[in-house]
Amino acid sequence: MHLYINTTSPFVRLVRLAIEEKGLSDKVELEIVDPWADPDTFLKANPAGRVPTLTTDEGHVIAEAHLILRYLDEIAQPSIYPSEDLARTLEIAAPALGATEASTAIIIGRKSSANFDTDMVGSKRFRSIASGLAWLDANLPRDFADRPDIANFAAVTLIDYVVFRFTDRDWLADLPNLSAWRERQKGHPSVEATMPYI
């Protein structure tokens, strides 16, 4: 399999966490691309120009993180959508995923408007991040050591992305439960292997 990635995308990280946890690392070739540069081979695979984009061994091209996660869950265990408490797991994951969407919207919005952070849309996006983190503080996902799932994937991805991208804010200062949860994930192989960087 072949996966187009960049090193900062939280959506790429969700997929890479699944690849690591499912033991598929040696079966997936990673190719770093700059999606803003529109390289020809990348656009041929995914005309939308978005990462992650996965090409399967059979030659099928799957774009969008959640669709790729669905495919990976079909071909390898453990499932990141646990049947025993699926609704609760998804309930925890949803605000984290929404806050991650909001955080990337800010980064992209800044490319088109110098005042994006303080305009109506930017302010709402920052509120979404804060409320998503507060939700997680009151509704902690399982630790990775207990079970990898979409909720802890979403939580660690959100936390690390906002810390990485918005260095002027101490996002976890008033969130002691979430702060302690993130501390417990340190050293977990998939978490360390997929940290964002420039």
UniProtKB/TrEMBL annotation:
A GO MF annotation of the entry reads: transferase activity
What does the UniProt keyword field contain?
A: Transferase
Q: Which Pfam families match?
A: GST_C_2, GST_N_2
- GO cellular component terms given for this protein: cytoplasm
Kindly indicate whether the keyword Transferase belongs to this entry: yes
Record PANTHER family: GLUTATHIONE S-TRANSFERASE OMEGA (PTHR43968:SF6), PTHR43968
UniProt name for this protein:
Glutathione S-transferase
Protein's organism: Marivita hallyeonensis
